[in-house]
Amino acid sequence: MTLTLPITDPVQAAARTAWGEARGEGRRGLQAVLNVIGNRVTHPGWWGRDIADVCQAHAQFSCWDMNDPNRIKLLTVTESDMQFREALDLSSRLVNGCLADLTGGADHYYDWRGQRPYWAQSRFYKCTIGHHAFYRVGLRGDGM
């Protein structure tokens, strides 16, 4: 598959983002990243208005950063990769509106093994799934 950027197919954009961000986190980890994408789409704003835009918004999902080693991997992964096939399945469910939210409405997350971002305030915390801590920060940083 030859990709043209930006990716406009919502299933492809979401699956590649989830795979790039959470391929080592199992099915629940992939689903949780997709939940964040879906929760952002539900509240459109500066982070995008649809699935493809949300996934590829500047400085939102690090796997899309030009200097991130995951970028080339997510652009070249194929359905021969089992985790990518899982990401495609879950992304189809997201696009069809039938993906359960494991995150309690989270719109942000980070890998808790790294440095805690400024926005990761305890009052916004929702849950931890694998190595990712999930937060509902909101468009204005007020948790709404």
Strand order of the largest sheet: 1-3-2
The main sheet comes to: 3 strands, antiparallel
Helix/strand order, N-terminal first? HHHHHEEE
Overall geometry comes to globular
Oligomer: single chain
Q: Mean of residue pLDDT?
A: 95
SS-based structural class? mainly alpha
Radius of gyration over alpha carbons?
A: 14 Å
β-sheet strand percentage: 5-15%
What would your notes on this structure say?
By secondary structure, the protein is mainly α. It is 40% helix and 9% strand. It contains 5 helices and 3 strands. It has a 3-stranded antiparallel β-sheet with strand order 1-3-2, with helices on one face. The termini are far apart. 36% of the residues are buried. The model has no long low-confidence stretch (mean pLDDT 95).
Helices and strands in order:
Elements: H1 10-22, H2 26-42, H3 51-56, H4 69-76, H5 82-95, E1 108-111, E2 125-129, E3 132-135
Antiparallel strand pairs: 1-3, 2-3
Helix pairs in contact: 1-2, 1-4, 1-5, 2-5
Please supply descriptive tags for the structure shown above:
mainly alpha; 144 residues; 3-stranded antiparallel sheet
What does this entry show, briefly?
40% of the residues lie in helices and 9% in strands.
